[in-house]
Each structure stands twice: as C-alpha cells, then as structure tokens.
Amino acid sequence: MKKALLVIVLVMVLVPLGVMASWMLTEASLKATSGPDFCTTCHTMEPFARTFQDDVHGGNNPRGLAAQCTDCHLRHDNVASYLWTKARFGLHDVWAQLTYDLDAIDWQAGLAHREHYVFDSGCLRCHRDLEDARGNNPAFVAHRPYFLGEIEKQCVSCHAQVGHRELAAALAPSPNRGDSP
Q: What is the pLDDT of residues 104-136, one digit of tens each?
C-alpha cells in the first residue's frame, strides 16, 4: 500500500514538472527562433534582415520598438495555427537551404506573392486599433472596406513595402529577365 501511494505521489509531482519543463523549453525555443538573429543564420536572408532593420517595424522609429520576423511571417489566429505555420515554413526553409540552388531563386518575383507569407493576423495583433476606429477617423475610413469584408485583400496587398524598407532594391535582379547585377 505504501509503495502504491509513493508511486501515485511521484507521478502527481513528476508529471506536472515534466510538462512544465517541456513547456518552458518550447517557449524558449520559439523565442530563440523568432527574430533576425536566428533567421539570418542562412545567408540568403541577409538582404531581408538589413532592409527590416531600416524599416519602422525593424526598430527604425522614435520608440525603437521592433517586431520579430515571426510577428509578420507566421499566423497568429491561434496557437495551433502558429505552431503549424512555424513548423511548415521552418522545414521548408531547411529543405531549401540543403537542396535548392539558392543563387537561382527569383526573390524579385517572390515579392509579388507576399500574401502567401505575410499574415493579417500578425498585422492585427499590433494594429488592432484600426478596426476600433470609427467615424471620420482617416485610419478607419482608409480601412473600412477591409474590415467590412467588401474587398478580398490582405494588409500587404495595399502595404506592399511594409516591414522591409527598399527591399526590391536590395535584392538581386530577377534571373528570369536577364537583368545583370
């Protein structure tokens, strides 16, 4: 009877400790892999990091506030969506680094597909006041069709340069157009 009670107590103590430790490790891992320091370990991300730092979202603002890469480039609808997108994009990026001819990637053409890797849920986490603005507030008037569902656009559809100041100029010319550097 004493052994059974001891096992029950150990399980009741060790299981929550294990869960808490794994949660803390997960949180630390997510934080460590969310910003420019981690993302630029791949040299192909250098122009993105440089133009991000020059942008208001990268800290070039009066307050010095900076977003993390994952604030814009991962879904923030819910935890499952966030983790799924992080895993999917992360695995894709590792695969690309190992198997793609990185010099042949047409980064310029990729800019036209920004809606696939920048998510409104990230924008709205910081800019939630836009939806609450009413009346003749210029921010509300400009965004009213979006919030009323009258248009099928994402934030980056209109705000094409957001997050990376002068990104198109910092990227290599498109190899498909025969441009020379």
A: 889 999 999 999 999 999 999 998 888 777 777
Q: How many residues comprise the chain?
A: 181
Check whether 148 has a pLDDT greater than 90. Answer: no
Compute the CA torsion angle 118, 121, 126, 131 (nearest 10 deg).
120
Dihedral sign computed on CA atoms, order 88, 125, 27, 49: positive
From residue 41, alpha-carbon distances to 37, 71, 97, 139 in Å are 7, 18, 11, 37
Q: What tokens appear for 93 in the block?
A: 């990026």
Give yes or no for a contact between 65 and 59, defined as CB atoms under 8 angstroms apart: yes
Distance CA 179, CA 152 (A): 33
Spatial separation of the C-alpha atoms in residues 152 and 102, rounded to whole Å: 33
| Cα distances (Å, whole numbers) of residue 54 to 7, 26, 64, 176 | 58, 30, 11, 28
> Do residues 36 and 147 lie in contact, with contact meaning Cβ atoms separated by under 8 Å?
no
